[in-house]
Design goal:
304 residues; alpha/beta; TIM Barrel; eight-stranded parallel β-sheet; globular; ICL/PEPM; Methylisocitrate lyase; magnesium
Length: 304
């Protein structure tokens, strides 16, 4: 039954694996999962981790990414995803859902949910999607207080606290580098600089910041889509693909629904659908059947 109803790997071991991955010299690839089933697929394919995007949690609730989701909603989605995978899960905790004390509580709640790490950003609350205009950032000092509160609440020292900065498009690269170094001094284990544009900007950031760095390779945003091998050669430690699986799924779902609407049948879509047998394989139906048979394979005897 181990690893069947829940991940075989403990939350502590997943956090230790994430922490070790940051200094392994191999870039840690974290595709976004919009559901536990997608997380299972990410693990099966062989990635190093799973990412839970705040923008995706919002979109899945049919809400824009403007700070409308709650800690409860985000933590529960993270818990559902962390439950099914042996991979470390990194989750988007927005601005910490309030003031520094709220950021501290956020860390404790996410630890309890089995998450391996979270990122907190320096936007003004409520936040905006990182690739939209109209963002505003708090002062460096305010973000340092946010981070110190989060670090103080950490019980497992391997829980990774990542500081995201959205200052590049507002204050420029040099000021953002200063922020990143201040965030590292405040206890951040990992720095995520949003909306860098080119390989040269990623290189400049790597040269100026000593602690591990995360690259966001989201589609249709401001950043050039840089291959993981290139990011690794630059010296980046983690890369996320936050919305890719949702975009792939929604594109396919919309195309299929339109065809059903127009033709009255899904017969022409079968070659674009996951087969029932493949779904059953991913869900491990056979293993559940064996488990059920082992539990209930018995006979009763009557007293003579």
């Amino acid at each position: 039954m181990t690893g069947l109803l829940a991940a075989a790997t403990s939350a502590a071991d997943k956090r230790a694996a994430f922490r070790a991955g940051l200094t392994s010299g191999t870039i840690q690839r974290f595709p976004g999962a919009f559901s536990p089933l997608v997380a299972a697929l990410i693990q099966e394919i062989g990635f190093e981790g799973v990412y839970v995007s705040g923008a995706v949690v919002s979109a899945d609730l049919a809400l824009p990414d403007i700070g409308l989701t709650t800690l409860t909603e985000v933590a529960e989605r993270g818990r559902q995803i962390a439950r099914v995978t042996d991979l470390p899960v990194l989750i988007d905790a927005d601005t910490g859902f309030g003031e520094p004390m709220s950021a501290a509580r956020t860390v404790s709640i996410l630890e309890d949910a089995g998450i391996a790490g979270c990122h907190l950003e320096d936007q003004v609350n409520p936040k905006r999607c990182g690739h939209l205009d109209g963002k505003a950032v708090v002062t460096t000092e305010a973000m340092v207080r946010r981070l110190r509160a989060a670090v103080s609440a950490r019980r497992d020292p391997n829980f990774v606290i990542c500081a995201r900065t959205d200052a590049a498009g507002i204050e420029g690269i040099d000021a953002t580098i200063d922020r990143a170094n201040a965030y590292g001094d405040a206890g951040a284990d990992l720095i995520f600089t949003e909306a860098l544009r080119t390989v040269a900007e990623f290189e400049k950031f790597r040269a100026a910041v000593s602690i591990p760095l995360l690259a966001n390779m989201t589609e249709f945003g401001r950043s050039e889509l840089i291959p993981a091998a290139t990011l690794q050669s630059i010296g980046y430690n983690v890369v996320i693909y936050p919305v890719s699986t949702l975009r792939l799924a929604m594109f396919a779902a919309e195309a299929g629904l339109r065809e059903i609407f127009e033709h009255g049948t899904q017969a022409g879509l079968l070659d674009r659908m996951q087969h029932r047998s493949r779904l059953y394989e991913l869900l491990r139906y056979e293993a559940y059947n064996e488990f059920d048979a082992d539990i209930f394979d018995f006979t009763t005897r009557r007293n003579p």
